[in-house]
Specification:
By secondary structure, the chain is α+β, with helices and mostly antiparallel strands. The protein is 28% helix and 26% strand. It has a six-stranded antiparallel barrel. A six-stranded antiparallel β-barrel has the order 11-12-13-16-15-14. Strands 2-3-1-4 form a four-stranded antiparallel β-sheet. Bound molecules: 4-(aminomethyl)benzoic acid.
Length: 451
């Protein structure tokens, strides 16, 4: 039989249903008679728009509450706890290079210790509580090295540092057989310290910006206006109480600056040093005891544009006032790496100085590129270093002279790599800022200041 029409098939089905299974049809008819009115009742009750809205609102409120509680317990119910510890490392011989955080040896060993601690905690049941470990000092112990370390955790507010000490200690115990190439003497003891203790430790060390003072996870430099404490080593050198030059604090008593700042007045009497981001509301003032200008400063070429200034009284280091790190003689500064220049200098060539400290992000330019015929055509000597942005616009300018050009190392310590020295006007493309290369004068600074 070929094609049957739909009505043929329907007729056949109707016939079969009625004749072969008559009971089924009766039952099905009676079921539908019973269910029909009930269905009408249920749909009118549950699809009532008012009830639906109520259910949706209740659901949303429940989800919001759950999210709120989760955020609260994950973020706000936690407080920072700090511990201090000392690790004795037996298989690393102590050398002089390990006495300064500026050396490659110090940086490599500290990073190795920091990642060893970090790995141990990340593999432990404290992985969600561990934040950071930072080596604050390497010292000689016997023939080996002892590393003083600060560690930060975030625990629930219901716990305090002391109650969690045992758990932290238990994890550190595992380090004895899993120390990634370092031979640790014995399980290190730990001491609970406060956030104020941690801040004090970093304030005494060199090169710590606010994020390191609290061992924070974040690091941000936003905008161009600096906050108090953002660049704690920045100094304003004032002549008869008027801002004249920038400077950078390298110890409690010494400020590094440019020689050309003292071309007209080299007698310390009218000079003062001002600390804090605002020159109108300074955080501190100090008188100047002596000014040491480099013997071979040449004003024609700006060679050896470097000077150190001794304060009359030592400044106590605080959160907002402390020293920068000095680079080693051998420190290589990588072309195209990021650096920051800070100061109260003019915003345009020929403009006025400003009263709130400003910062500019620039990139290091190789001396070869900076000496190109379209740039400075050979006027940049080996004791100088250039930094700028290809399109111009961000640069040091008049009044920034003597101030710092700084870079952050892999351990978040900041180094002064340059001192604002000269340039053709300000912010022009192909005419970057030229700075005194601090690493080239590391020995001169040591001889003059003992730092
Ligand atoms: C100045 O006259 C000066 N653009 C300082 C830095 C620069 C230019 C001029 C670099 O003190």
């Amino acid at each position: 039989m070929a094609a049957q029409t739909a009505s043929d098939i329907n007729q056949m089905l109707a016939f079969r249903t009625n004749s072969t299974f008559p009971n089924v049809n009766i039952i099905s008819t009676s079921l539908s008679t019973v269910l029909q009115p009930a269905r009408v009742v249920s749909s009118s009750r549950f699809l009532n728009p008012f009830v639906v809205a109520l259910v949706v609102i209740a659901g949303v409120a429940l989800v919001a509450m759950a999210i709120g509680l989760l955020i609260h317990f994950l973020a706000f119910d936690r407080k920072a706890c700090f511990y201090r510890s000392s690790f004795q490392i037996l298989n690393v011989e102590y050398t002089d290079e390990l006495s300064s955080p500026a050396t490659k040896e110090y940086r490599i060993l500290s990073e190795q210790i920091e990642s060893m601690i970090s790995n141990i905690f990340k593999e432990s049941n404290l992985r969600n509580q561990f934040i950071r470990a930072h080596v604050i000092k390497l010292r000689q112990s016997g023939r080996g090295v002892t590393a003083d370390v600060v560690m930060k955790f975030r625990f629930s507010k219901r716990n305090n540092g002391d109650s969690m000490k045992g758990r932290v200690q238990a994890v550190l115990q595992k380090m004895l057989n899993n120390s990634g190439g370092l031979e640790i003497n014995s399980s290190p003891g730990i001491t609970t310290i406060t956030s104020q203790d941690t801040e004090n430790i970093f304030t005494q060390a060199c090169g710590a910006r606010p994020d390191l003072l609290t061992l924070s996870e974040e690091r941000v430099i936003g905008g161009t206006l600096a906050d108090d404490g953002d660049w704690p080593w920045q100094v304003s050198l004032q002549l008869n109480n008027v801002h004249h030059c920038g400077g950078v604090l390298i110890s409690n008593t010494w400020v590094l600056t440019a020689a050309h700042c003292f071309k007209s007045y080299s007698n310390p009497e009218p000079w003062t040093a001002i600390f804090g981001a605002s020159t109108v509301y300074p955080k501190r003032r100090a008188r100047i005891r002596s000014i040491v200008v480099h013997n071979n400063y040449r004003s024609g070429t700006q060679e050896n544009d470097i000077a150190v200034v001794q304060l009359n009284t030592a400044v106590p280091f605080t959160k907002a006032i402390h020293r920068v790190c000095l680079p080693e003689q051998t420190m290589s500064i990588v072309p195209d790496s990021t650096a920051y220049v800070t100061g109260w200098g003019a915003l345009t060539y020929g403009g006025h100085t400003v009263s709130d400290l400003r910062q500019g992000q620039v990139r290091i330019i190789s001396n070869a590129a900076c000496n190109a015929p379209t740039a400075y055509n050979g006027a940049v000597f080996s004791g100088m270093i250039c930094a700028g942005v290809p399109t111009g616009g961000v640069d040091a300018c008049q009044g920034d002279s003597g101030g710092p050009l700084v870079q952050e190392d892999s351990r978040r310590l900041w180094f002064v790599v340059g001192i604002v020295s000269w340039g053709y006007q300000c912010g022009l493309p192909e005419k970057p800022g030229v700075y005194t290369r601090v690493s080239a004068y590391r020995n001169w600074i040591r001889v003059q200041t003992g730092v």
